[in-house]
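Comment thread on ticket #2218

A.B. wrote:
> Attaching the input chain for the structure job we discussed in standup.
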Amino acid sequence: MKRNLQRWGALGAAAVSLAGAMVVTGGTTAAHADVRCMVNTIYINASPGGDPKQQALGHSHNTGKHYVGSYQWYSTGWWLWEWYADNDGGSDGDTADTWYGSSWCDHAAW
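C.D. wrote:
> Ran it. Output below, let me know if you need it in another format.
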């Protein structure tokens, strides 16, 4: 029993440490990297049967395409970028895009 308590204590400490790291990085490390303050020109809705293909500011990588759906300047001198996931449904039509995250950036998205 004592060994199990020690083992669970170590696992609990590791979980608390990981949770602290996730808070520092904005929730999850993968999502944080995906809402960075850097964009390229990409094309969303590119599969046939979905919405018309259109140009957007964002990036593509192994978890999909993410684009800046809106951005707003605040009097603090920062821009808030709202990121969306391109949920391109392919041949069965286009699935509505979903909010992916937000980031505070020191410049506009263009």
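A.B. wrote:
> Thanks. Noting for the ticket: The chain has two domains: 1-33, 35-110.
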